[in-house]
Amino acid sequence: MVDIKPFKAVRYTKKAGDPADLITQPYDKIDAEMQVAYYGKSPYNYCRLILPMEKDKYTVVGQRIAKWLQENVLAKEDEPAVFVSRQEFTLDGKKCVRTGLITAMRLYAYGENVVFPHETTYSAPKADRLNMLRTTQKNLEPVFLIYSDSEGKTTAFMQQASKAAPIIEVTDELQVKHTVWKVTDPDKIKQLQVDMADKPVVITDGHHRYESAVAYRDEMRKKAGLAEDAAFNFHMSMLVPVEDECLVVLPTHRLLKNAEITDEVLEALERFFEVTEVEPSALALDGFLENHRNEHAFCIYTKEKAYGLLLRHEESVYEFVSAKASKETKLFDVVILRDVIFKEILKIGELKLDEDILFVRWTRVAAEKVDSGEASVAFLVNPISAKNVAEIAQMHERLPEKSTDFYPKMVSGLMMMDISPNEKLGFR
């Protein structure tokens, strides 16, 4: 089902400097403060490619890549390869190791039942990434996907590859260590292709990048023809087995900029939820959610007060959520939050990213943004499991945007993939 190929990675050379000064978080995780900090780290920092500060950003990035290639700051490798990527990190005092494959994966329309999305997307980010593809003709960041490896064949491939010397070792600003190994042996790669062929995959991060890449592929096919091995038919991808014990999903909390929790709102909430006042601290809020992990639990935080919410009856939400959604999807917390609390109780229509709503992974940060006035109220949720994400996606259903936060992110700047019209993939 899924077609993967090795590719000739474009990577930083030693001339670029210390890799720790070059890598960044993904473009959609970089705020204005981080952007300035990244620019200060190095004249070759990857932020200058994925989220430049200059006004004519698409042209600037295209010219910058060409210049860095000419100056040997960036260089394309001579032989095609697939890569094994490992992230080592600590979360809640536990040491974790997550391992996946970086490869070129063929692009499929969602209707082909090979690649499944799990979240709704926004049009503006897709237009932005499409413009970047048109200008740079490069995959600057991977799409992150999960698949089932119940037989452990691809896991064995990764374990074997990681016995060799790595080509990259670098620790990011979140103290996540990233290690990359390169595999060029055609026989090993061909066996990996066979082992992956029958596995449907689910997008965890990079929906906007993926959908933009499909649009770009369709444009290029009209211009350059239907060559099956043309690189623009593929996208650089990070593929992680869903069985990986360190495939961590964090909650994504919602912060509204213009909402107010009045007595009338609290009264309306009590139709559906048991509402209790809790201490307005990150510790207490996290404690409430953790203590009710297997229930439909939410927290609300304002400057003055905080509340814990527990859904009274599951049946009470059915008439308010999307009629097209399955019973299982109707009961995801992020769906209840969107369709019952936001739409039915707060009477909020479409929410525009950054203008009306913010998404935050840590409760402490959510509280700080409300306290500072950047948002008026925070709605806190428990995380969704990776297994549930995969199951719901393969039912052809999507959760609300930013429903999941797979942690840690793949840092950007380890490599890019050339998708120029004449670039071909595979062994020659």
Outline the structure in words.
With 428 residues, the protein is α+β, with helices and mostly antiparallel strands. The chain folds into 2 domains: 4-248 and 408-418, no CATH class; 252-382, Conserved hypothetical protein from pyrococcus furiosus pfu- 392566-001, domain 2, CATH 3.30.1760. The protein has helices at residues 32-41, 47-50, 57-70, 123-136, 153-161, 186-196, 207-224, 263-269, 282-291, 327-330, 333-345, 363-371, 386-393, and strands at 4-5, 9-12, 74-76, 82-91, 94-106, 115-116, 138-139, 143-147, 168-171, 177-183, 201-205, 234-241, 248-250, 253-256, 273-278, 297-301, 306-311, 357-360, 377-381, 405-407, 416-418. Strand 16 (297-301) and strand 17 form a beta hairpin. Helix 4 packs across helix 7 (207-224).
In short:
The mean pLDDT is 92. With 428 residues, the protein is of the alpha+beta class.
Features of this protein?
alpha+beta, 428 residues, single chain, Conserved hypothetical protein from pyrococcus furiosus pfu- 392566-001, domain 2, 6-stranded antiparallel β-sheet
Which helices and strands, and how do they pair?
Layout: E1 4-5, E2 9-12, H1 32-41, H2 47-50, H3 57-70, E3 74-76, E4 82-91, E5 94-106, E6 115-116, H4 123-136, E7 138-139, E8 143-147, H5 153-161, E9 168-171, E10 177-183, H6 186-196, E11 201-205, H7 207-224, E12 234-241, E13 248-250, E14 253-256, H8 263-269, E15 273-278, H9 282-291, E16 297-301, E17 306-311, H10 327-330, H11 333-345, E18 357-360, H12 363-371, E19 377-381, H13 386-393, E20 405-407, E21 416-418
Parallel strand pairs: 6-11, 8-12
Antiparallel strand pairs: 1-5, 2-3, 2-21, 4-5, 4-10, 5-12, 7-21, 8-11, 9-10, 13-20, 14-18, 14-19, 15-17, 16-17, 16-19
Helix pairs in contact: 3-4, 4-7
